[in-house]
Amino acid sequence: MKKWLLLGAVLAFAVGMTGVAWGHVGMDWFAVEVTPGQITIDADLSDWAWVDDAYILTSDDLPDVLGGEMPPKDDWDCALYSGWSRPPDNMLYFGVHIVDDMFNNDTPDPGNSYKDDCVEMIVDPDHSGGNFREGDVHGITAQQYGIHIPGAGGTALVYQWAQDEQQWSTQEPWFVAVYDDSDLPNATYEWKMALWDRHDPAGPDASQRHMNAPDQMIGFQIQIDDVDAEPDTRDHQPGTGGTESGSAWTDATVISGLILVPGEGTAVEASSWGTVKATFR
Predict the structure, then answer these.
(1) Which H/E stretch holds residue 5?
(2) How many angstroms from the chain centroid is the CA of residue 42?
(3) Quick one: pLDDT at residue 189?
(4) What pLDDT was estimated at residue 97?
């Protein structure tokens, strides 16, 4: 059993007993603790090999946020790794290897990258919830980011669906992302990112950085857009949210919860990592 399933049941019981509201829907999933330098952002996921496979999400663990059936594994599959670090590094780390029989990345407009194969994230670290697209400036109380492998049009690698003045958090050192699409249908994304309880258009000095801590649950959802034969049309959107998360692009209340697990996940044998890699073919 995946650890997110087991702990999700425990948390559901605890919420029922205490009346505490986490402020999200969808599954509870997990990030394992890492130390600075343990994960190199280079799109080589072998430095995640020590992570217990109970913490690795695949297509078997993810629903289609669009509400349809998940694609068969020979159409689409993934392995998603998640980590976190304490201050002063204070970052989230992710790696995802996707196997997709048809890869699309032809939009020249960053705002339309969701119409291609793209990794989306909706982030609400302090569970303030609500509509984060209201008002004159979007993305203050929560943020929606996308990682899109640039095509011929030169689309930005990382984009926040917000105004231009809010794009500062998509840049280093706050967001570092790389990809490898040299072996399609395999595509690999790896990134680390800072979290913000309040994201101000004036920049990081005017914003409130979120501080990671053990056993903390943050509002965080990943959903991966899959566009196949029909251009600009998502066939599937596997993600950590449920079908209730269809409005997550504007409402942070309906996103999933990411739990920061203290200590390192149980190491896996090298042969296990070889087995995982073999599924990418």
Answers:
(1) helix 3-18
(2) 17
(3) 92
(4) 94
Cα–Cα distance measured from residue 121 to residue 14, given in angstroms and rounded to the nearest whole number: 27
Hey, where are the domains in the chain? Answer: 3-278
Residue 59's alpha-carbon distances to 50, 159, 279, in angstroms, are 21, 25, 12
Query: Model pTM?
Result: 0.85
Strands (E), the chain: 28-33, 57-58, 76-84, 92-100, 118-124, 143-147, 158-160, 175-183, 186-193, 196-198, 208-209, 217-227, 234-236, 257-261
Mean pLDDT value of segment 254-277: 63
**What is the fold of 3-278?**
Immunoglobulin-like (2.60.40)
**pLDDT attached to residue 43:** 93
Q: Please, are residues 170 and 138 in contact by the beta-carbon 8 Å criterion?
A: no
| Model confidence pLDDT, tens digit, residues 80-116 | 999 999 999 999 999 999 888 778 777 777 887 877 8
Query: Strand 257-261 relative to strand 92-100: parallel, antiparallel, unpaired?
Result: unpaired
Residue type, 262: P
